[in-house]
Structure formats: structure tokens, C-alpha cells
Design brief:
The structure holds 2 protein chains of 2 kinds. By secondary structure, chain A is mainly beta. Chain A contains 1 helix and 8 strands; from the N terminus they run αββββββββ. Chains A and B meet through β1, β2 and β5 of A and α1 and β21 of B.
Chain lengths: ~120, ~450
């Protein structure tokens, strides 16, 4: 098992952290910066996510996941606001999973991060 | 730089997002433990584990756990053959023990749950044993060790022998790192990369200080006693313009000192090195922690400054020479391996675990050994990352690494050794104290997540 360099930093920077709009049910606030999703990499049959927290005082960071047959995102996990990585051990099927993230502080949310996709079987 | 490289270079693990700047401070001397016994051959000290407060650069004060209120804890100074008595009291909010890393103690004094009832909050325990070997050792809890050591519970024992090499100066360097959040707190959530690599902090510490200044005298024969007390970080030291003369390791001096440009210390390891200070008076150099690939892309990190070396304006000393030999140590004879230990990592039921022969502690079947009998361990690392393999209660010797026999000049007594990724070591080992002895990976998160086992030593095996 290895952490894989799936995306180089320049790619992520050009992709940028942005609001994807769409199906979010909570209004974003311009005062909170979205995380920057750096990497989604296959690891031991699951997916390893790494991101940068552009907002330093989030209460939590939420990741949303969308399987390739889905049209909308579901909450994948929530971690404390200082955490910058997580293994999504629920993403194990041979398909593409897309992720986006946002910061939560109190009742407010940031916009969504960039989106990154990967297949856990693509080792 | 790839995204992963950047992740490990500046944001290793939970909360490690802002490497802190530090104002220059001298290397703090370790606080000596107070000997309360007038008998020169008995060292009697008090140790209290309690919450304390320290300030790291750029953040508000941080609440840590310490022995006797200092980070690192007190320095216990002794001579080989001394008896050490420790009156330990636990003022922490949870149970703890003290393990005497590298010290050959009776098993009941080893501070593991295999042999000792935990010291509950408010409780006390009397540790007492003879310090049989000269060398640099350290002590730390063996309950929830990943958390308790990370919070600051560790101290050092320096035991002097009869054949100590002479030097102009000697410094102990206790290496550590710690994750400090912007509000000065320590992360309580163990993120997945910290499980995988061990906690790696955003503040590097030498004797509890970030980026201290080591003051050396030009031309001086300077001895450095180095211990890595970090949970997960491997320190790969370099000092441009200098070569380290390695004169000893975990179990004391080695017969054949050797030179090294880099000094790699896994968690738990110690090295004893000498340098002749070649810098001119008033010059400065930087001691670096260089990247080292211990697996999972860790080799792509940037070098990190660890300490500054400032050569004093004193008149240079001259005529110093590095030692090139020390008395022989007993070489354990070779033999065929009789125990196989396979280290591995895997996901099980969605959780990261670290295994020994496919099991996690306490479900790892114990290894039986006879008292005073030579045994041979084949330690196979089946995982794509290095593991520092630590055995309690005795020293072992490396016989073979990846099929290559250890040279006659590389004889050393070790208690912690790096088992490189996808590599097999053969070790010779012999216990002279009965009891249940732990062996484990000294990346403390790995030990707590399963990579630990017991060796049961009895008279009749």
C-alpha cells in the first residue's frame, strides 16, 4: 500500500477551490474559505483523501461522496477542523467515486472545494 | 513537488498545518533528578507524572504531561552498578506506568501491563533495580503510550561506565516533535495518516525547545548522546561540514567506531557520536533533519532545520583525535532461526491495523524462550514501510540483513532496530531474566494498533 501521487500540486492549484453549487442544502458563506482537496488515492482497496484546510478555524470538515451512477452527493464523513486526511474505507467498489469538501463553523459552511475522483481498484 | 510530498513536508498528520518559527534559544540542559540517598551507590529519586504547561513558538501555552514538571523529564545520572530506586506517583487523570527503555531490569520492574498493575490516578509505585549497563537510556509510559508519550512523558537515564571515552564537552540531545494547534492545544483526534506513519508534529524539539542553539568550542572533541523519543518521526541528522564518528548505540559503546554523514534514528533508538568542532570561532551551522524514505512517500519531504550550531569565540583547542576502538563486547554466536515474526499492515473491518504474524496484540501467540538460552529471530517486514523493532529486557545482535551477514566490524548491542520495508533481519537474542517481555514496533501508534507481542522466558524451556 502506498500513498500515490495522483495529482500534482499545479493541477490542484489550477483546479482551484471553488463552489460547485448544485445540491447543497445549506447556504454557503463567503467568510469561510473552502478546503483544497489535494488527493484521492487508492489504498488497500479503499480511497485515501488528503486536503489543505484554507480556513484555519473550522469546527469540522465535511467530505461528500458521489458514486458514478449517482447524480447528487451524500455525506461521506466529518472530521475535526484541523484534520487534513482521511481514509474512506466505505469506498471499496470498482467504480469512480467523486469527492468535494467544505468547512463548517458554527452553523455556517464554506463553499465547496474542488472535486476529485478516483477508483479504489485503480492500483 | 507532488501533492503528497507537500502534505508530508509541511503538514504531517493531524493539525500540523503551520510550522512554527522560533526565536534562537540556547540548548537547555536537562534538569537533573535529585538523589535523596546519601549512599553513593544508591540513586533514590522521586518522579511525579502530572499535567504541566509549556509554550511553543507562536502559540498560546500548551498543556502537556510531564515527569516532575519539565519537558523532557529529569535526567537520571548514574554509574553502572548503581541501584536506582524511584518513588513514582501518578497525578494524571488516567492510569500509567513507567517503562525503562533499554535498561535490563527484572520483568516486574519493566512497566508493562504483562507484568505490572497500572498505577491509577493518585496512586504510587516503587521501582527498584540495578543499572547493569553503561549507556543512554530513557523512560516513558507503557499504557496508551502513543498518547502519553506524545503529551510529553519521557525522560533520560545516563549511566556511565568504567571505560568512558574522554571528551572536552558532552551534550545530550533528546529529539522529539509535537503537533501544536494554533490555539496551543494538542490534537485529540488521531487522523489516518498519523495512524499510518505515527504522529508527526509540526514543531521539532531538541531537549524540549524548538530550534535551539548548540554552543560548541572550536577544536573541541564533542560527544553527543542522541535519543529519538518521537512517536513516529525518524530523525535523519546531517550537519554540513561534519562527519559523525559513531562510537555507541542502544547498548553502549561499540568495539569498532565508524563514520557517518547521516545519523538515522528511528523512534526509541539512541546513538553516541563524537565530532571535532571544525568551524571557526564565531561561525554557525545548521543541524538538519533530512528526508528519509521509510515508506508511503515519506522520502519526498523537505529537509527541516532542527538546531543551530554556534562555535564560540573561545580560543580553538587543538590536538584532539577521534577514538577508533573500544573494548570488545561478547558476540552472540550464529545459529538457525527458531522464531519467525512477520510485521505487516492491513485494513480489517474498515480499520487500519498493524499485525504480527497476521494477528494483533493481545491475540498474538506468545513466544516461549528458555532462560539463558540463545534464540534466533527471523523478523520479516512484509509491509511497504519501515518498522523500528524493539525488544524489552535484553539486547540483541543483528546477524543478517536481507540475506547479507553483518560484518565483524558492525557488532553492536541493540534493543531497537529498523526493519526496512519488505526486508528480513535475523537477530540473535538471549534473556537472563525470566518473565513476560514485550516486543513491538516503536512507532507507538503501530504498537497500540496491534504490532506488539510477548516473549515468555522461563527456566524450563
Amino acid at each position: 500500500m502506498r500513498f500515490r501521487n495522483v495529482f500534482v500540486l499545479s493541477t490542484v492549484l489550477f483546479a482551484g477551490a471553488c463552489s460547485s453549487g448544485g445540491d447543497d442544502d445549506t447556504s454557503a458563506t463567503a467568510t469561510l474559505e473552502a478546503p483544497m482537496l489535494m488527493e484521492v488515492a487508492p489504498m488497500e482497496g479503499a480511497l485515501h483523501l488528503a486536503w489543505m484546510n484554507m480556513q484555519k478555524d473550522c469546527d469540522s470538515v465535511e467530505a461528500e461522496r458521489k458514486m458514478e451512477h449517482q447524480t447528487s452527493y451524500d455525506l461521506a464523513f466529518s472530521v475535526p477542523g484541523n484534520v487534513d486526511n482521511k481514509m474512506d474505507t466505505a469506498a471499496t467498489d470498482n467504480m469512480m467515486y467523486a469527492y468535494r469538501m467544505r468547512c463548517k463553523k458554527g452553523a455556517a459552511y464554506s463553499s465547496y472545494s474542488n472535486e476529485v475522483s478516483a477508483n479504489p481498484h485503480d492500483m | 513537488m507532488g501533492a503528497t510530498a507537500l502534505l508530508f513536508a509541511c503538514a504531517c498528520g493531524s493539525g500540523a498545518q503551520e510550522p512554527a518559527a522560533a526565536a534562537p534559544e540556547p540548548l537547555p540542559a536537562l534538569t537533573p533528578a535529585v538523589d535523596e540517598n546519601p549512599d553513593p551507590s544508591i540513586l533514590e529519586v522521586n518522579l511525579e507524572a502530572a499535567e504541566s504547561q509549556v509554550r511553543f513558538p507562536g502559540t498560546p501555552p500548551t498543556r502537556v504531561w510531564t515527569y516532575n514538571g519539565t519537558l523532557p523529564g529529569p535526567l537520571i545520572e548514574a554509574s553502572a552498578g548503581d541501584e536506582l530506586r524511584v518513588h513514582f506517583s501518578n497525578r494524571l487523570p488516567e492510569s500509567t506506568t513507567i517503562h525503562w527503555h533499554g535498561v535490563r531490569v527484572p520483568a516486574a520492574m519493566d512497566g508493562t501491563l504483562a507484568m505490572q498493575t497500572p498505577v491509577e490516578p493518585g496512586g504510587t509505585f516503587e521501582y527498584s533495580f540495578t543499572l547493569r549497563d553503561a549507556g543512554l537510556f530513557w523512560f516513558h509510559p507503557h499504557i496508551r503510550s502513543d498518547v502519553q508519550v506524545e503529551k510529553g512523558l519521557y525522560g533520560v537515564i545516563r549511566v556511565r561506565g568504567l571505560d568512558e571515552p574522554s571528551s572536552d564537552d558532552e551534550q545530550i540531545l533528546v529529539l522529539d516533535d509535537i503537533s501544536v494547534l494554533p490555539d496551543g492545544t494538542l490534537p485529540t483526534y488521531l487522523d489516518d495518516e498519523s495512524k499510518m506513519l505515527g504522529r508527526q508534529g509540526n514543531v521539532l524539539l531538541v531537549n524540549g525547545r524548538a530550534m535551539p542553539t548548540l554552543r560548541w568550542r572550536a577544536g573541541a572533541l564533542t560527544r553527543l548522546r542522541v535519543v529519538n523519543t518521537a512517536n513516529g518521526r525518524f530523525f535523519n541528522l546531517s550537519l554540513p561540514g561534519y562527519v559523525f564518528r559513531v562510537i555507541g548505540t542502544d547498548g553502549g559503546l561499540i568495539p569498532h567506531p565508524y563514520d557517518a554523514d547521516r545519523l538515522l534514528l528511528a523512534p526509541g533508538e539512541r546513538y553516541d557520536v563524537m565530532v571535532i568542532v571544525t568551524g571557526d570561532p564565531g561561525s554557525e551551522a545548521t543541524l538538519w533533519d533530512e528526508p528519509y524514505d521509510r515508506g508511503h512517500d515519506t522520502g519526498a519531504a523537505d529537509p527541516l532545520p532542527l538546531a543551530k550550531v554556534a562555535v564560540t569565540e573561545d580560543a580553538p583547542l587543538d590536538g584532539r583525535a577521534l577514538p577508533d576502538s573500544f573494548p570488545a563486547i561478547e558476540r552472540l554466536p550464529d545459529g538457525s532461526s527458531d522464531e519467525h515474526i512477520e510485521l505487516d499492515e492491513m485494513l480489517r473491518d474498515g480499520e487500519q491495523i498493524f499485525t504480527i504474524n497476521g494477528d494483533t496484540y493481545p491475540d498474538v501467540p506468545p513466544i516461549a524462550m528458555g532462560l539463558g538460552t540463545l534464540h534466533y529471530l527471523k523478523v520479516q517486514n512484509a509491509s511497504p514501510m519501515d518498522h523500528p523493532f524493539h525488544v524489552h529486557g535484553t539486547f540483541f545482535q543483528l546477524l543478517e540483513a536481507a540475506g547479507t551477514p553483518t560484518s565483524a566490524d558492525a557488532l553492536a548491542n541493540k534493543d531497537t532496530i529498523i526493519v526496512p520495508q519488505m526486508t528480513t533481519l535475523r537477530l540473535a537474542i538471549r534473556f537472563d531474566e525470566p518473565g513476560r517481555w514485550m516486543y513491538h514496533c516503536h512507532i507507538l501508534e503501530h504498537a497500540e494498533l496491534g504490532m506488539m507481542g510477548e516473549i515468555q522466558v522461563t527456566q524450563d524451556n
